[in-house]
Amino acid sequence: MIEKKEKKFEAKVDLEKVHKLQHTILDEVKSIYFQGSESLSKDKLEPLIGSYLWESTNILRCKGVFYDGSEWQLLQGVGEMFEFRPCAAPE
To answer: What percentage of the chain exceeds 70 in pLDDT?
Structure first.
């Protein structure tokens, strides 16, 4: 006969230490912003973003919305992969 024994594990977590660690991680996140007063060309922006992502190991995620002169574009990416997609105008 096989007996099933259940053990209950309780983890004691110091929430203050976890909170401080989360802030430390967030404080180390750096951002790069592209901002312009004119419409941006997707054809010019794509190689620029690609070079940042492919030459850097520090960028984990990218996102944004821009107008390329004819339609709104959504930029999204993770690691070395990114894409542009047509999207609705931001409000």
So the answer is: 65
Query: Rounded to 10 degrees, what is the CA torsion of 43, 47, 48, 52?
Result: 150
Global pTM exceeds 0.90: no
Query: In residues, how long is the chain?
Result: 91
Which helix (DSSP H) or strand (DSSP E) does residue 19 occupy?
Answer: helix 15-27
- Residue 67 DSSP SS3: strand
**What's the rounded Cα separation, in Å, for the pair 42 and 37?**
15
Neighbours of 59 (CB within 10 A): 19
What burial class does residue 46 get, using C-beta atoms within 10 Å of its C-beta: 0-12 exposed, 13-18 middle, 19+ buried? middle
- The residue assigned the tokens 């520090």 is 58
- What is the average pLDDT score of the chain? 75
